Amino acid sequence: MSVIVRIPTPLRKITADQDSVPADGASLAECIASLEASYPGLKERLCDESGEIRRFVNIYIDGEDVRFLQGLATPLKDGAEVSIVPAVAGGGGWATELAT
Q: Going by C-beta distance under 8 Å and a sequence separation of 6 or more, which residues neighbour residue 52?
């Protein structure tokens, strides 16, 4: 499945300043693997050491939070919009964690 992934500002240095990029995959996990193949280093900013989505990163598929769907196993439809949204918290620490 071909999808469009919306990239937040802190991650755009990895995607050559693109605010959206294409990716492939039948599930969110496959989509993230596709992103990593095209933009090395992106997966480690989205997923922790155990392979789960980092706590300060929210991912939405067509406006639905994947944490309330099937997480990384959430299936993707062709043409879906995947949005990566850093969690908003006091102190701005998420931006530093996401960008490094």
A: 71, 72
The total number of structural domains in the chain stands at 1
pTM to 2 decimals?
0.85
Question: Mean per-residue pLDDT for 44-67?
Answer: 95
CATH number at residue 18: 3.10.20.30
Its domain, for residue 55, covers 2-99
Task: For residue 68, give Cα distances in angstroms to 20, 81, 89.
Answer: 23, 17, 20
Residue range 2-13, pLDDT digits in tens: 999 999 999 999
- Give the whole-angstrom CA distance, residue 28 versus residue 96: 24
